[in-house]
Amino acid sequence: MENEGSLVIVTGCYGSGKTEYAVNLAAAGEPGRTMLVDLDVVNPYFRSRDLRDEFSARGIDVVAPEGSFSHADVPMLSRRVKGALRNTEKRVIIDVGGDPMGARALARFSGTIKERGYRMRLVVNTRRPQNRTVEEVLDMAARIEAASGLVIQELVANSHLMEETTREVVEEGAAVAGEAARQSGRDFFTVCVLEDLLPRLGEPRVQARIFALKKHLRKPWEPGSGKAWRI
Amino acid sequence: MGDKILMKGNEAVAEAAIRAGCRHYYAYPITPQSELIEYMARQMPLAGGTFLQAESEVAAINMVLGAAACGMRVMTSSSSPGISLKQEGISYIAACRLPAVIVNVQRGGPGLGNIAPMQADYFQATRGGGHGDYYTPVLSPSSVQEFADMAPLAFEIAEEYRTPVVIFADGMLGQMMEPVVFPDSYAPQKDPSAWALGCKREGEFCNHIINSLFIDPAVLDQKTRELFAEYDRIRQNEIRYERYNLDEQPSILVVSTGTAARVVKSAVDALAEEGIKVGLLRPITLWPFPYQAVAEAARGVKKVLTVELNMGQMEQDVRLALAGSCETAFVGKAGGLVFTPEELTEIIRGYAS
Amino acid sequence: MRIVAKRTRGLTSARLTYCPGCLHGVAHRLIGESMEELGIIERAIGIAPVGCAVFAYNFFSCDMIQVPHGRAPAVATGLRRSRPDCVVFTYQGDGDLAAIGMAETVHAANRNENITVFFINNAVYGMTGGQMAPTTLAGMKATTAPYGRDVEDTGGPTRMCELLATLEMPWFITRVSLLSPKDILKAKKAVKKAFKNNLDKKGFQFVEMISTCPTNWGMDPLRAREWAKQEMLPVFPPGVYKDRGAEQEDAS
Description:
The complex is a heterotrimer. Chain A has helices at 18-27, 52-57, 81-86, 99-107, 110-116, 134-148, 167-184, 198-201; strands at residues 7-12, 34-39, 60-63, 91-96, 119-124, 154-157, 187-194, 209-213.
């Protein structure tokens, strides 16, 4: 279910958890037939390219600036992006930088993307400033559409406070994302919950499928972070 | 208290500063602190304050000097190379006895280095940083919540002692997201009208002069001694630190701050499960340094380890604290690399056995 | 008895530290008188630079601050944005303003900061003992140009009014001379106009004053003035280089 669509674009407000969601989509993809395109020109840390080694070992191709430039302090896009967008043999997931500012990077590829056909998802975390209400979520969606030249069809609720996420937070996010989807005629696609938290949260009452996220992007002091920090 | 929300350290410290009454902010973009200046660009005008992107870090700190001279709650932020450029201005602000807050979201150095987190500006921050005989209080957070809470604290210390205060963060603290909650109210600003420029004054006008030039060496000596009397007061009142796993006698004491201390905590917990008692003393004020607290925590331990994201700087303060009373060792990483908990656990285990 | 001249309330009773015959005293008086006549002493904030005028905080009777070398326009930016109802002015020499402080000068002008910059141009570093300034004339000797300024090697004299007038935003840019009584009367008008424009929140005012340095030039004050008239004024011609107020009047 989660893997519908041969080109999925993941957008959202800054810090909504887009990258973690995109990385999880890619991780669930078929080895040898999945590409994760890192279009984040906004964030200097915690990017999907940090997982390149781990993913390529599993047959998932991460398209991002190469080698030592992957940690460069300049907005840089891989020259492989366009090729990846045209490669219909593979399922492509695009991780876009946050906010309309980050979504700008999509605009230059919008022709190629429209030719192929796509599904664009907006990840919503109501525990981020400027993303707390239905109005704010719809405003964000409109501004991302304007910046990217593309249309958001689906909403993904990802309200969380990392390890401090409560059931209330998940339900609050699902309610806002659901209502925003209803008002704007978009699909309310899924509700994300960190896998490790699921037992503690019980069964949140939400109006969409629950997608259990595995945490890939860890802080350096969290066990298993070594690969993300390339040490 | 409002709702808990998820924020980057860079955003949280900016939001906390605005909530604490900061209405003047001048800075220049640099990674990994740019979210801070961008947050201020967005939110400061909405709060009715002044946001200005300066033409350089040098100009930015001098704009801060101007606003501070008027008694405004004013802040600037940058990352390591930019903080070097601000040092001349910080020296003037310290000499002129003006309150101001400077946030350093450190990156890899020396030179242009890289954009990864480091703690290599320790010497610069804790030894004044610019020219002349002065110090600035230095606050070192190790979580997004603490980073945010340090904004109002920095203003309070700055105003109480009329000194610039440095918040000593790093790229990790600036970039990572954690839940954060803001208090409902903040301490009001201390009235600056006795010394600030451009205040409306009752009665006969007598002008205010702000100056750091004292041509007569005897006068400069006197002024410096007044400054250092204030530093004694800061040493008495403002030393802050955290003791972690130190209630029972540990075999190893680790001294570590900021991001490095977060990894140390993971290692301390892992070793506790193995039955190895390791304690952590985390300095929160780097100047004034908690010399006495380190010496006390070191009593009865086999070794004191200093863990830093540099080649050994705070380690010198730890050795000053111990004055040769205990064996010490240094564990560090340069280049912007960060320890993994597994790696650090193994290193500490090695010293414990 | 009729009082024909008296000390202005815009200046303190402190004795000036400038050399005899130096025109800083004249410039100070013009600024002090203008503040008094406009009634702004209590709401003016002045900035003393690094240079011969470093002690200016002792001489002007308004609020004063002494700042790092070249940074006066940046400090003025912080002051005026904190105290929008005050009149903020800087008082800078050619090294402070046109060498080390060039960036701050250009950017404050471009932002049209509501401040007045007084620029005292005497073609030499006075405070540090007669070194070459950005405004030193071609062939003119200085302690760091002992064979005379070679423009092929060290560049030509920097014309700040002309340079700043290429910007769109600054409000009023003028160069005046302090070399004769007639010139001084004209200079006074420019000073007052600049302050008046600040009171009306018009923005950036730049008043360059052609001055002398008898001590470092090695001339008596009268000869220094004659030399400046002959040598400096052709390179730095007095005049109004930008006046957005007049442009607006012309347009209407």
